[in-house]
Amino acid sequence: MPRQPDRLRAAVVGTGAIVAGSHLPALTAHADRVELVAAVDVDPGRLDAFRAEAATAGFDVQGYADLAAMLDGARPDLVLIGTPPSLHREQTVASLKAGAWVLCEKPLCLTLAEYDEIAAAEQASGAYASVVFQHRYGSGATHAQELIAGGELGAPLVAHCQTTWHRDAAYYAVPWRGRWSTEGGGPTMGHGIHQYDLLLHLLGEWTEVRAMASRLVHDTESEDVSTALVRFANGALATVVNSVLSPDEVSRIRIDCADATVELTHLYGHSNADWTYTPAPGVAPERAAAWRSPAGDVPSSHTAQLGALLDAKDAGVRPPGSGPDARSTLEFAAALYKAAFTGRPVHAGEIAPGDPYYTAMHGNHPDWSPQR
After folding, report:
1. For 5, what's the count of Cα atoms within 13 Å in the CB-facing half-sphere?
2. Do 238 and 230 meet the contact criterion of CB atoms below 8 Å apart?
3. Which of 2, 24, 53, 371 is the most buried (most CB within 10 A)?
4. What does the alpha-carbon distance between residue 281 and residue 314 come to, in Å, rounded to a whole number?
5. What pTM does this model have?
6. Whole-angstrom Cα distance, residue 82 to residue 132?
7. What gap in Å lies between CA 240 and CA 194, rounded to an integer?
């Protein structure tokens, strides 16, 4: 593909399955707007394989073993990060300091303290860091959020958010999984975060969390199941379940509003057909007909989120999935852990510098810290 001078220069950090399987197709889909010019990986064989795959998509990718060398040599406008979670904060801050925007796999970092370090790097550099929460994107989610925010379904009242997946012992044999210092937590941080991020996106500001967590099957530092009760600023109440113990895997969000129930059922990604709207008794058929999903079907994906980020870059505005909005999701995770481990409710804004859950999701709790 001939190089177009007005395209943004992009680089990827990490060339494993998530980058090759999701970020590369997203970059290819937006090849008229962004050019992949560099890749970083400590594994030469994996890096070479990725460069060959990228070449088939029309990208001439320079390989690097070191992030700093890549930032200095390639001077990217955008860095996409797909490395293990413990590396995210350092790599994001380095990229921001080099003036590049960042799109990083979840979690963007492991603690609220690390998030605030990233926010400081944003402010100093003028660049922005977004976290991959691809379930917010796509036509079905956009349509639902607009209907709820606009009051078209009536006031939100009751919600359920379910991430019930299954992971076996072989999954946790990977050294960095299930450890606080490398993954940040269990399914609360690594699995269910996508669904409850979408729930927060749909319902808005949360105010209070009560929770429980346990290790029921896996011999990990962190939990393998958590549950929460959540109160939202609009008065709605919700349940959240995050599990890796569930043979019948499903991802589900249900929101009962005064005039309709909206429900999303899928596994790892959704399209318009995965959303349903059930009107309350007495709702006029013509009103309910207006709730139908839009004709254009854009599946939730890295491709959809990258498009939104590129739109923000073109407009020179903060991209979605960044800043205080994305921080709220990480704060929710910290609040869930604190509520579960202390046995008391946690309120939004409560976890601040000086709180043990600000610098560690386990809060140095004697039953949950790595030194237990």
Report:
1. 0
2. yes
3. 24
4. 45
5. 0.96
6. 10
7. 12
- The secondary structure of 256-292 as a DSSP string is EESSEEEEEEESS---GGGEEEEEPTT--HHHHHTTS
Q: What does the domain layout of the chain look like in residue ranges?
A: 8-131, 135-301+328-359
**Predicted confidence band at 4 (pLDDT cuts at 50, 70, 90)?**
low
In this structure, which amino acid lies at residue 177?
R
Q: Which amino acid is at 117?
A: E
Right CATH for 135-301+328-359 from 2.160.10.10, 3.40.50.1450, 3.40.30.10, 3.30.360.10? 3.30.360.10
pLDDT bin (cut points 50, 70, 90) of residue 282 is very high
- How far, in Å, are 20, 125, 130, 269 from residue 275 at the CA level? 28, 40, 26, 12
Q: Tokens for 314, please give them.
A: 């073109």
H or E element that contains 251? strand 245-257
Asked: is 8-131 a CATH 3.40.50.720 domain? The reply is yes
Q: What is the 3-state secondary structure (H, E, C) of 109-135?
A: CCCHHHHHHHHHHHHHHCCCEEECCHH
The first and second tokens of residue 103, run together, are 């799109």
Instruction: At 197, list the tokens.
Output: 């991020």
Q: Say which DSSP state 322 is in.
A: B
3-state SS, residue 307: helix
